[in-house]
Task: inverse folding
């Protein structure tokens, strides 16, 4: 099973700042990595798939990069609605696995 | 508009059974791979099971293999999860989620339903 480790666990920033979230895989997942956003009480929403492709309707301030074992989600300028929990997910191998999440909170 | 609505959750005793349903609308259900993903209270996401459009291909997480059964009824636009021999650690919100690419296995999840809570407790 591929283990995904996200860092930091919690990130405290202010609106307008740049956010950088990391996801490290225990073995290479090529570029088969996605990012999801989950706000309290809501279902997760797909943001980025295949490392860097934005899902339908996702603002351009969200971008993804990386390959192999190290991946990054960047939010260029935080909007108030961006404060949420973010999960990475790999689909390189069964079973599909998720990271434990990064909580992005308002500073 | 694509909609996924889960139902069937509730309180069940350890060792008991429960059947979850997911009603789909707004898309050609039979053409899409479907999935169940769960989230224990205050915890992260865990993939549970996936099923192809024709039910020919089915996959399970090891944690539920042999106890849970995924199925679908394309005539009713519905996805199911039969859960047997339930354990306390199965307590979670269970989400139904679609593979966005249809019949090809991207194994991404988009969109998701709002989930249904299953609580396993005596």
Result:
């Amino acid at each position: 099973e591929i283990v995904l480790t996200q860092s930091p666990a919690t990130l405290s920033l202010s609106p307008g700042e740049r956010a950088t979230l990391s996801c490290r895989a225990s073995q290479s997942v090529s570029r088969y990595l996605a990012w999801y956003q989950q706000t309290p009480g809501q279902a997760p929403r797909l943001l980025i798939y295949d490392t860097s492709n934005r899902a339908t309707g996702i603002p351009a301030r969200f971008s993804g990069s990386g390959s192999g074992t190290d991946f990054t989600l960047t939010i260029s300028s935080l909007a108030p609605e961006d404060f949420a929990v973010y999960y990475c997910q790999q689909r390189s191998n069964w079973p599909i696995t998720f990271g434990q999440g990064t909580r992005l909170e308002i500073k | 508009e694509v909609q996924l609505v889960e139902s069937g959750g509730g309180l069940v005793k350890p060792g008991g059974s429960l059947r979850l349903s997911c009603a789909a609308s707004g898309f050609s259900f039979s053409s899409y791979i479907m999935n169940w993903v769960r989230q224990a209270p205050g915890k992260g996401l865990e993939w549970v099971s996936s099923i192809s459009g024709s039910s020919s291909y089915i996959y399970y997480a090891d944690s539920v293999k042999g106890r849970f059964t995924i199925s679908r009824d394309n005539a009713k636009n519905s996805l199911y999860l039969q859960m047997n021999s339930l354990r306390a650690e199965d307590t979670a919100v269970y989400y139904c989620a679609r593979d966005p690419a249809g019949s090809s296995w991207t194994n991404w999840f988009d969109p998701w339903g709002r989930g249904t809570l299953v609580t396993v407790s005596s």
User: Anything to note?
Assistant: The mean pLDDT of chain A is 97. Chain A touches chain B at residues 32, 34, 36, 42-46, 49, 55, 87, 89, 91, 94-101 (CB under 8 Å). DSSP finds no helices and eleven strands in chain A.
